[in-house]
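Lecture 7 notes: from sequence to structure.

We start with a single chain of 198 residues. Read the sequence below before looking at the structure.
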Amino acid sequence: MKERFALLLKRYPVLQPCQKELSAALDLLAAAYRAGNRLLVCGNGGSAADSEHMVAELMKGFLKRRLIPASHAAQLEAASKTDGKKIAGRLQGALAAISLAAPVSLTSAIANDIDFEMIFAQQVYGLGRPGDVLLGISTSGNSKNVSNAVIVAKALGLKSIGDVSIKVPADDIVEIQELHLPVYHWLSTELEEIFFPE
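Now the structure, written as tokens:
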């Protein structure tokens, strides 16, 4: 981990002031996954795309092929003699993550029937469980629908990377979004190494 962290900071020295927060966010996520919990991610516009991107890195192999446990492969073979083995050979280990920006029908229904500022809060209320983690991505840091989700998460006993705020040191929208990418790529890489070391 130290080597990859050093490489991140070498490639993006502007992230040096965020070292403590980056480590805290990784510890928070690792603890949640060890306890069998999951990650909920939200954001608007480009941050919505980032939330889906991060989920894609976690829910299947990112930098390596993640073999599923032999016990799961055996269960699949027992469930289907003809296809179980083939399915087991294709499945990859996953770190449970959900993008709250993805369900278009649900988010538009919440926006229409309740309020756009509640699109993520309502989903956290419906999906979140104590011990889960909410990652709210915001370029401005002022997205009301993200901050509302953080409030609901706190009330329900979720941890939030809004609480462990990683504020990248930039003011320009383009620069902020460019710096978010290496942050969640680093988090995804580290989590993959922790939970899929082979």
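The chain has a mean pLDDT of 93. Keep this in mind for problem set 3.
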